[in-house]
Design goal:
This protein is an all-alpha fold. It folds into 2 domains: 38 residues, no CATH class; 272 residues, no CATH class. 61% of the residues lie in helices and 2% in strands. It has 12 helices and 2 strands, in the order ααααααααββαααα. Strands 1-2 form a two-stranded antiparallel ribbon.
Length: 351
């Protein structure tokens, strides 16, 4: 210990010798206090920024957007407003958009950037559905010009800091979506439409199925699983690029467990708003198929994913062990919601 103390003292004296005479120790102490104060402030700001946003009322958001644009609430207003509201929350929440930050405290944070990415993936999927099916009456119809420009901007890389920054692209996409909403809410204009049909809703739900299925598998892999290869099951003539083993072990790396958890939490948060919007815009379709209660049960399952996490860290207990496993709890809610979405798609396909 004495040798270490002597070594530190030697380094301190060498640093002091490099400074102007008469300003050594006081200047060094002042600098250390400034750095310590900055780090403390950045840490406190990081804690505040790490709280995920609460949900907002989709119906109120649709009404406020229509009033701001001087129009009225029409079919499609809720879905468009939900998309806008989620993007606005990503950009305007405490700390703003953090996934591309390169300075403290944003660069230190881990959970909320993954939460942002999960929500962003759902934004991208819905914007694609709006461009490809919601705003078009037939497969050969012309796509909406604003949505055609907004969708690729939502798909811009999530971690670009400058030239251009991710935020600038998402803001442009948000402005284009607002232009579509403005034309949509104008009952005198006919150049913007939203077609609330059962097949359109099934198209988007099929994408949601694949997203939730992937998240469920990644969450379940927190404890490691030995899985049987079912890639070619059900088709004897099917082939794949390269051979894979009949059994393999899937396990999420320890440092990525909380990343997957918060990505799933952010994805579910955005999806809650989009499904509530679908409940409004597709109300007649769902009522005819007697499927509205099924949609609301899906929303109820996803809302449980937003319960408060009381643990200071994501615990990764093993299956039926003594400690909890937050990832498996999240996987349970998402899997149940995903199974209910499969049933909902079947209901929508019936005549």
């Amino acid at each position: 210990m004495n040798a270490i103390a002597d070594k530190l003292a030697d380094w301190r004296d060498k640093v002091a010798d490099l400074l102007p005479q008469g300003q050594g120790v006081p200047w060094l102490k002042t600098s250390m206090w400034v750095v310590a104060g900055y780090l403390l402030l950045a840490t406190l700001m990081g804690v505040y920024w790490s709280f995920s946003p609460t949900t907002f009322d989709v119906q109120e958001k649709a009404a406020s957007v229509a009033v701001e644009d001087g129009g009225s609430v029409v079919t499609g207003s809720a879905t468009t407003a939900a998309l806008m509201g989620v993007v606005e929350m990503l950009l305007e929440k405490p700390g703003g958009y953090l996934r591309n930050d390169v300075f403290p405290p944003g660069v230190w944070l881990d959970n909320i950037p993954n939460w942002e990415y999960g929500a962003l993936v759902q934004v991208r999927d819905l914007s694609r559905a709006m461009r490809e099916v919601y705003s078009r009456s037939q497969s050969q119809s012309t796509e909406d010009p604003d949505l055609a420009l907004a969708e690729p901007r939502f798909n811009f890389r999530a971690d670009s800091w400058v030239l251009p920054s991710s935020e600038s692209q998402y803001k442009e996409a948000l402005a284009l979506t607002r232009d579509y909403a403005r034309r949509l809410s104008d009952e005198q204009a006919h150049n913007a439409q939203f077609y609330a049909r059962a097949d359109n809703l099934r198209y988007w739900l099929s994408t949601v199925n694949t997203r939730l299925g992937s998240l469920s598998q990644r969450l379940s892999a927190s404890v490691g699983q030995r899985r049987i290869n079912t890639d070619l099951a059900g088709d004897g003539s099917a082939t794949q690029s390269t051979r894979t083993p009949e059994e393999f072990i899937v396990k999420t790396p320890w440092l990525e467990i909380d990343d997957v958890f918060y990505e799933s939490r952010g994805s579910a948060w955005a999806l809650i708003h989009f499904l509530k919007a679908a409940d409004i815009d597709f109300a007649d379709v769902l009522q005819k198929k007697n499927a509205r209660v099924s949609l609301r049960q899906i929303i109820r399952e996803l809302e449980r994913t937003q319960d408060t996490v009381w643990s200071p860290m994501i615990v990764n207990g093993r299956g039926f062990g003594l400690m909890a496993n937050h990832s498996l709890v999240m996987a349970s809610y998402i899997s149940r919601a995903n199974a209910a979405i499969i049933d909902l798609r079947d209901l929508l396909s019936q005549g």
